[in-house]
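Hi R.,

Here's the input for the flavin-adenine dinucleotide complex you asked about:
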Amino acid sequence: MKRIIVVGGGAGGLELVTKLGRQLGRKGKAEVILVDRNRTHLWKPLLHEVATGAMDTGMDGLSYRSQAHNHGFSFHLGTLTDIDRDAKLIKLAPLYDDHGKQVVGERTLNYDTLVMALGSVSNDFGTKGVSEHCIFLDSPQQAERFHDELMNRFLQYAESDTVDEKVDIAIVGGGATGVELSAELFNAVEHLSAYGFKKLNRNCLRLTLVEAGPRILPALPERISAMAHKELRELGVDVRVGTMVVEATNKGLKTKTDELIPADLMVWAAGIKAPDFMKDIAGLETNRINQLAVKDTLQTTRDDSIFVIGDCAFCLQADGKPVPPRAQSAHQMASLAYDNIIASLNGKPLKPYVYKDHGSLVNLSRYSTVGSLMGNLMRGSMMVEGRIARTVYVSLYRMHQVALHGYTRTGLMMLVGRINRFLRPRLKLH
Ligand SMILES: Cc1cc2nc3c(=O)[nH]c(=O)nc-3n(C[C@H](O)[C@H](O)[C@H](O)COP(=O)(O)OP(=O)(O)OC[C@H]3O[C@@H](n4cnc5c(N)ncnc54)[C@H](O)[C@@H]3O)c2cc1C
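And here is the predicted structure with flavin-adenine dinucleotide in place:
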């Protein structure tokens, strides 16, 4: 029986492996395997909510083993370190427990078809001090670390007698992650005062959002970017555009003009790259940010048995621009890769991937949602804000849930979510 391995159970990989499991694994037509370095899945666009406590990974994470059991694939916990294309196998690093004791040694798994869906990590562009002093929001573990440090900082503030002290937070990168995190932090601070952090209110937060380019949300139309900028300023965010950070220290961020932006907590969200170990992995073609180059069928340029989807794929559109690293791209690529894997198993021709931009939305926590939508009925893009924008924003996550669980279960999950809003505190408090 042919063996298909998907490495990375994220926004794209988990949708793909679920579909393959249902269609091939369950019917005994192929062996379908998911490999991920984590035990549970959390949709990455929700990580800033984990960082502020608006979401609890313990409650909201989806167990890979349970998903595998329900959908006809098997799950291997492990971190991919290398591919041997001649032997058609992947290598997984040894697994250690929290005390450093080895649980399982290095393993190898053979494949007939391999799908790389490993996502991306933050790119600090080699900026001095960033890896030591800034937190990245690349994984649930990092988002939880930020949350712990944030809660400690708030506790320190609430217990201190100094009147003019503030909680200084700096975020580097005015893209969707930086903008959404900024708004979510103000939401958190307002809710925490109701849970015994009496002194906390939005005035205790000094939040600086730093962007090197001339405006925040550079990938979105100028009007949206101006709207979001205004909203953030009204919340109290110090938005610094045209400001290049050259170093991070334990006191804050140093700019190109030699200014120090003081900060107790710093987040780096200024760009992405595929993980460093992927550079030239197994002699495959990669670009300067380590993404694997693919043909329009999503197969690598040098090996047809390897497909790549999501953020780690370097896929060019007809206009020569790369497909952007977004959840909607990962979702679309998962659908096309599914069709093409089935076609290649049946000896049928493969289809080309065409990226469909449905627009971009930015959610400023409960304060506002802004963005632009694109569709077949409209020419160009249409600006949206408020309730409509919020509904469309949420529907991207609902689509992901439907792909993983089907309509009935997703409906039940929405119901449970509503009930939990009454039962659980608004924020994770521990
Ligand atoms: C805070 C934040 C907010 C965002 N908001 C939005 C948004 O609003 N809209 C939008 O479209 N996009 C958004 N994005 C981008 C979006 O999350 C990504 O484009 C999308 O998740 C990419 O999907 P993927 O499947 O390629 O990778 P991911 O979803 O990142 O999944 C990668 C998976 O691979 C696993 N993995 C990684 N390395 C290894 C390894 N060596 N071995 C085994 N497993 C491994 C990881 O554990 C993970 O499960 C946001 C990103 C962040 C960080």
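One thing worth noting: Residues 359-423 form one domain.

Cheers,
M.
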